[in-house]
Amino acid sequence: MNIHFFQKLVFQALFLLCSSFLGFARPPSAPDELVAVANSASSLLIAWADNSENEAGFRVERRLPKGDWRLEGKVPADCTSFLVAGCKAYTSYEHRVIAFNQDGESVSETASGTTLALLNQKRGRFIESGNARQGEGAFIKLKNSNLELYYSDMVTVSDLAESRVSKKVSTDGGETWSNPKVVFEEEGMALFLPSIKRLGDGNIAIAYARRVPGEWYSKRVARISKNEGKSWGDEIVVSDGAYNYQTGSHDRFYKLGNDDLIILIHSVKGDPGRPRHLVTDVYGSTDHGRSWNRWTKESLDVPANPYEQSEYGYWECAIAELGKGEILMYGRNASGWIYQSRSKDNGRSWSEPEQTDIRNPLAPPYLKKIPATKTLMLLSTTILDPEGRLMGSRYVLASRISDDGGSTWKNHKEIEYHSHDMWYDYPNVLFDENFVHLSYRAIELTPQKLWDRVNLGYLKLPLRWFLD
Predict the structure, then answer these.
(1) pLDDT of residue 201
(2) What is the reported pLDDT for 214?
(3) Residue ranges in the chain modelled with pLDDT below 70
């Protein structure tokens, strides 16, 4: 035997022996005592015993009986529970937990759990069904305590339809709502996707998309009111023409703690044909909305499209201010996960979007910070079918909260999930002392699961409902 080869074998053996004795090069021990307990009709709580002192974290996987295992998320070391969302009602699933570190992994035994049955009835109610499609709105509370809900009011269910911005008013805290009133309308144009915000100088500003119907040209504009929305100033162009089609989801207008304003705008990059590539930019104002500039030097993007969806990229994002200049952004993409970007300088620069551990279909997450707290609220549609239409039917609209800046999430609550004849999506909220006002699209489906009518849904819940 070659002496050098023999010396190498001896050295490797001694290294492995010493590493084992010192606790190095050792995979973590497998978790045990795994249980899966029904949390709701669309979620299960997975818990286990941690038997290791050297794991880097745990992966949680789920499958239908005899199906393929699918990653549902990861948690850090020493964590012993995980909420698996996006399940179907009254369905049994198998779960396993994998402890891992740089030297290997160990797999637990499986545990089965069955979700609860559907809710018996809708929680919310329709407050407007006059046109074929209404929704994607934003709330404002006026100085006289009236609530106003501005929303897209469209003549057909198509995204390309002519549209106007209308509003409804409540003088009794959301118990009743007025008939709709048209706020902005222009013949031959689509005005839609409103966002509204109280400014640091006391005025109110509204932003919306201004689009040529049927053509891939759009821009984002704003107006300012100095008299509580009774009248509005001239249009102020927010977008800068970096792309031909620049729009933005509803209720994505933010005032930071330093009174700077942010509007999130997503754009079609390149050819508008399918598959369509969308990217996000941050536009800011430092003069109470009178002028706007693009703060992102490069558009934020997630270019992967692993399931060959008709739209991909990073768009319909939402942000929450965490404090000390830090802002968290969650966005829609075609990967099957929510992606996040962060800013540490009040929105002037942003990190490259990266995957979170939150499963998500091809639908926008809605992120909001609860006032006077550090708690974040996430609203999303949760059923995931990567190879299905929009990567999952939007039967479930659910909430979660985070007390650690989005690192972990808890309190999965179903806002709506009562049948398979309705879709719920595009929510917006107003925190009003001890209550939360929610608006969302409530979409009635045909027997063929196509859109029939898009109603303006509304629900008022105690804030404690989300927190407990």
Answers:
(1) 97
(2) 80
(3) 1-25
* pLDDT value at residue 24: 54
What pLDDT does residue 9 have?
45
Are 55 and 181 in the same domain?
A: no
The reply to whether 324 and 431 lie within a common domain is: yes
The secondary element (H helix, E strand) that includes residue 12 is helix 3-22
- pLDDT score of 160: 84
Asked whether residue 127 is assigned to any structural domain, the reply reads no
Write out the H or E segment, with its range, that includes residue 271. Answer: none
101 shares its domain with 248? no
**What total number of domains does the chain contain?**
2
Kindly report the number of other CB atoms within 10 A of residue 435's CB atom: 15
**Residue 320 covered by a domain:** yes
Name all contacts of 212-217 with Cβ < 8 Å and 24+ positions apart: 212/188, 213/160, 213/161, 213/162, 213/163, 213/188, 213/189, 214/160, 216/244, 216/245, 216/268, 216/272, 217/244, 217/245
DSSP state at residue 377? E
* Ramachandran class of 405: left when φ > 0, alpha when ψ lies in -120 to 50, beta otherwise: left
Domain that holds residue 259: 133-467
| Structural domain includes residue 26 | no
What is d(CA 155, CA 423) in angstroms, rounded to the nearest whole number? 19
**Same-domain check for residues 237 and 325:** yes
Residue 215, pLDDT score: 86
Q: Would you say 95 and 61 are in contact if contact means Cβ atoms under 8 Å apart?
A: yes
**Per-residue pLDDT, 11:** 47
Beta strands in 39-91 (DSSP E): 44-49, 57-63, 70-76, 81-84
Where a domain ends, among 79, 114, 149?
114
- Can you give the pTM of this predicted structure? 0.92
